Amino acid sequence: MENSSTPVVNTRQGALIGFIDDDVHVWCGIPYAAPPVGPLRWRSPQPSPCWDDVREATTFSASSWQSSEYCQALGGGDPGRFSEDCLYLNIWSPVTRQTPLPVMVWLHGGGFTIGAGGLPPYQGHALARRDVVVVTLNYRLGHLGFFAHPALEGEEDRVVHNFALLDQIAALQWIRDNIAAFGGDPDNITLFGESAGARSVLSLLASPLAKNLFHKAIVQSGYTLPDTPREQALQNGDALATHLGIEHATAEQLRAIPAETFWPLTAPYNIAPTPIVGDCVLPEPMLDVFFAGRQHPVPLMIGSNSDEASVMAVFGVDLAGQIEKLRRERRFGLGIIKLLYPGVKGDEELGRQVCRDMAFTTMGYVAMQAQQRVGEPCWRYWFDYVAQAEHETYPNGAWHGNEVPYVFDTLGTVEPSRRYVNEHDLAFSAQVADYWVNFARHASRTCDALQGPTRWLACRKGRDVLLRIGLNKHAGFKLENRFMRARMSLFKRVMKHHVSLD
Question: From the candidates 194, 400, 403, 417, which is the catalytic residue?
């Protein structure tokens, strides 16, 4: 047993001192790569420099450049100051621990344009008290994280466009090499994320560069939008440079653009909420890898929320307009869809449910079948709990991202939920967090179920089962067989051709 009153650890770069938060050691702002500034903008992350003295790790680092207002409205809090020098991570570990402990590495969401590892909902204290080591991290966002331009071609011995995903890979490599010093088990790392963070997890499950860097994965609200083709990304980068007044731009001119220039850009000059396919990180589309069952063979948990369509307005999708478009162009397809959604009235509500299922729910079904092909377990869920005081605020169920403070068990400490949650909400949140930690601790190829209020069975060959977390917005857990199976079968067949933001 270890019970150190001074949270000093030695990493490969040097010694760190953190602080104690009640019964948890915390280290913030640990560099996992060199600052990607100047000539290192739009290059693969480089190793972090070493230091001689004991380095203080007591404050969160700067976040990648983004919109603070947008992040506070949609991303979970104030991201603080911004800098291109943003490649840092944060660690929570129990003061008293039996080592080695399972490690849970969180990738934040935000459409690849907002967010940070230090935001209030992602504080790892409550999970660490369950005897795991929690890691959150920043990665490059927006055009700093995903960019292609002809002037940048040939600068490295490999093609690189997904700099943000390479940042995440660099963080996983740092964790593999150093986490034992913080009480973590480098052979039991669970990678988990929500929205763009979930899409990152899916991408790393498909990336040859991430092989063996994590051992389990949790995908919360991962979406089925197709990756951006490399050719399109190159055209987009060229058009952006021209828009900024730099026609036929050189690499030096591109790197001289101030970082704050990128984040206010709107369509068609903003980035898609998807990675770029065709570089060393993603040589082929993520969806193709899962359709073929060639993802890294690790245990997987995957699910989505009952009102994922709440994010569609952010993406600029007109829900009712999607149904009207079907009515004009594919009347037969609309007829089939109406058969699959009996009793749903009005274009707005039908569009809400169809867009939700095509863009989010179906990903869990695709991943389940891919897991069955590689002989790995898959735990599927459907999150549909709403805090008791908020049922009228959320009439259609759990919004995109609503599950995050339940997973971290931070519901009672973050805004605005801490002002209205009651003891029943907090008790339910604790049960959800317990399931996530049980997955990190026990999930394996031979594990068939996770213990909790309901024994959560894994999907195996011949078994299509899902855990409903929340029942019509109320507390409860229930296993359901063949969840939305007819809808999922249809949408899997058409999603590669019809799931888009057009």
Answer: 400
Determine whether 252 is an active site residue: no
Q: Longest Cα pair distance anywhere in the chain, in angstroms?
A: 70
Point out the catalytic residue in the list 48, 93, 195, 429. Answer: 195
Q: What is the pLDDT of residue 410?
A: 98
63-89 as b/e, with b when 16 or more CB fall inside 10 Å?
bbbbbbebbeebbbbbbbebebebbbb
**Measured between alpha carbons, how far is 99 from 486 in angstroms, rounded to an integer?**
46
Q: d(Cα 138, Cα 168) in Å, to the nearest integer? A: 8
pLDDT of residue 60: 97
CB 48 within 8 A of CB 34: yes
List C-alpha distances in Å: 132 to 127, 436, 439: 7, 11, 11
Please list, in sequence order, all residues whose beta carbon lies within 8 angstroms of the beta carbon of residue 97, skipping any fewer than 6 positions away: 1, 2, 131, 183
Q: Hey, what are 475's tokens? A: 């507390």
Chain centroid offset of residue 257 CA: 28
Is 67 known to be catalytic? no
Helix (H, G, I), strand (E, B) or coil at 251: helix
10-residue mean pLDDT profile of the chain (502 residues): values are: 72 97 96 98 98 97 93 88 97 92 98 96 98 98 98 96 98 98 98 98 98 98 96 97 96 97 93 96 97 97 97 83 88 89 94 94 97 97 98 96 97 93 98 98 97 97 96 98 95 70 44
Q: Which of 84, 194, 308, 376 is catalytic?
A: 308
161 has catalytic annotation: no
Question: Which pLDDT value is given to residue 2?
Answer: 52
DSSP secondary structure letters along 258-284: -GGGTTT--TTSSPPSS-EESSSS-SS
